[in-house]
Design brief:
The structure holds two protein chains of two kinds. Chain A is mostly beta strands. Chain A has one helix at residues 29-35, and strands at 2-7, 18-22, 45-48, 51-52, 64-68. Chain A has a five-stranded mixed β-sheet with strand order 2-1-5-3-4, with no helix packed on it. In chain A, strand 3 and strand 4 (51-52) form a beta hairpin. Chain B has a single domain, classed as NAD(P)-binding Rossmann-like Domain (Rossmann fold). Chain B has seven helices and eight strands; from the N terminus they run αβαβαβαβαββααββ. In chain B, helix 5 links the parallel strand 4 and strand 5. Chain B is globular, with a radius of gyration of 16 Å. The chains are: A mainly beta, B alpha/beta.
C-alpha cells in the first residue's frame, strides 16, 4: 500500500520533506521507522492524517504520516 | 506617553494601561529571551522579571541580542536589566541570576500575569510548566533549532508540553544545537504577541496548538 511520509524541522536535514512509500499492508508507524532507519527517540510528535497517534498505530492505504522532532533550543 | 504614541490604536489606551500594570516573567535571557525582553519593554509591560543563571560566551554572539563583545562572561539577566533601563528607565525590572529548578520555579514566577518560556532545556521547560500550573499563570512556550521554531500558549492545566514532547521528555538527550540569528527573533515576536493578547484579552491565542515555523521553506503550520 502507498503512504505519504512528511517530516518537519531538523528531520528535513536527513530526509526529504515529503515522500511516498510503498509498504506492507497493516504496517505500523514503528515499521516505517525501521524502513527509513529512524530512531524513535528523535521523534516527539507522530500524526496520521492530522491526528496524533502512538508508534504502534496501524497505517492504512493513502495515510499521511507526519513526524516532528523535539525542538528545544532557546 | 509620547514613547508609546505609535502603539496606538493597535493597542488602545485602556489596553496600554493593562500592559503597564502587568507583570511578565521571562525565563531565559539568551536567544529567545533577549528578543522577548526587548519586545516586552517596547510594547509597554510595566514590570519585567528576567531569570538566567548563565553568562555570555563568544558562541552567543551569532544570535543573542543582548550579547556583545564587551559583556562576554557577564550574567545574562543582569545584562538584560541594564539593557531595559536604557530603553525605559520607568520599567520595574527584577533580574534574577539563577537557573530555574524544581525548588525555586514556583516561587520565582509567583505573582506574575504571564510567563515566557525562553529556556534551552526540555526537562526545565517541564518544571516551568508545572510551576505555572501551580501558580495558575499562562505560559508562552517557544523553542528554536536551526531554521526552525515553534510556539504554543499553554493555559494552566493544559499541560500541552506533554503533547509537544511526549512523555519521555526527561529522557531526551540535548546537545548544543545549531541556531541562527533570525529563528529566535521570529519565535520571540510571536511569544510576546501571545503574552500581550493574554493581558488585553483580545485576539486568538495559540492554545492547544503548536505553531511550527520552517524558515528554510517559509512555511507556518499549526498542529
Amino acid at each position: 500500500m502507498i503512504i505519504t511520509l512528511k517530516v518537519f524541522a531538523t528531520l528535513r536535514q536527513k530526509y526529504p520533506n515529503i515522500q511516498t512509500l510503498d509498504v506492507n499492508h497493516e504496517s505500523t508507524v514503528a515499521d516505517i521507522f525501521n524502513i527509513i532507519n529512524l530512531n524513535p527517540e528523535t521523534v516527539s510528535i507522530i500524526m496520521v492524517n492530522g491526528i496524533s497517534v502512538k508508534i504502534d498505530h496501524v497505517l492504512a492505504e493513502n495515510d499521511v504520516l507526519s513526524l516532528f522532532p523535539p525542538v528545544g533550543g532557546g | 506617553m509620547q514613547r508609546y504614541q505609535r502603539n496606538f490604536p493597535a493597542v488602545t489606551e485602556e489596553e496600554h494601561k493593562l500592559l503597564q500594570n502587568s507583570k511578565i516573567c521571562i525565563c531565559g535571557c539568551g536567544g529567545l529571551g533577549g528578543y522577548s525582553i526587548e519586545l516586552a519593554a517596547r510594547i509597554g509591560f510595566g514590570y519585567i522579571t528576567v531569570i538566567d543563571g548563565d553568562t555570555f560566551d563568544e558562541t552567543n554572539l551569532n544570535r543573542q541580542l543582548l550579547s556583545n563583545e564587551k559583556n562576554i562572561g557577564y550574567n545574562k539577566a543582569i545584562a538584560a536589566k541594564e539593557h531595559l533601563q536604557l530603553i525605559n528607565s520607568t520599567i520595574e525590572c527584577n533580574a534574577i541570576e539563577t537557573y530555574l529548578n524544581e525548588d525555586n520555579a514556583a516561587l520565582l514566577i509567583k505573582n506574575h500575569d504571564v510567563v515566557i518560556d525562553a529556556l534551552d532545556s526540555i526537562p526545565v521547560r517541564f518544571i516551568l510548566q508545572r510551576a505555572c500550573k501551580k501558580e495558575k499563570i499562562p505560559l508562552i512556550h517557544g523553542a528554536v533549532e536551526s531554521w526552525y521554531g515553534q510556539v504554543s500558549t499553554i493555559l494552566p492545566g493544559d499541560d500541552f508540553l506533554d503533547k509537544i514532547y511526549g512523555t519521555l521528555a526527561d529522557q531526551i538527550k540535548q546537545t548544543p544545537v545549531s541556531t541562527i540569528s533570525f529563528s529566535p527573533s521570529i519565535i520571540s515576536s510571536i511569544q510576546v504577541s501571545e503574552a500581550v493578547k493574554i493581558i488585553i484579552k483580545r485576539g486568538t491565542l495559540l492554545q492547544n496548538k503548536l505553531l511550527i515555523v520552517d524558515l528554510l521553506q517559509t512555511s507556518f503550520m499549526e498542529v
